[in-house]
What we know:
The chain has 66 residues and is of the alpha+beta class. The chain has one helix and two strands; from the N terminus they run E-E-H.
Amino acid sequence: MDKEELEITIDANGQVSIKVAGAKGGKCLDITKPIEEALGEVKVRQMSSEYYEQPTDATKVRDNQR
């Protein structure tokens, strides 16, 4: 199983950015969903190349409604 990492940055203006590494396909959205819900509105979402890769175990990725 690949190691998944989150990098959460809060800038001087209070803007939060979250980068996910090691999660393929929609799994990154599953990982960040609770954080996004706690923080509020997502203003910008940028997908990395990993998002477009097929997860190794697609059955573990939930249906994302984004």
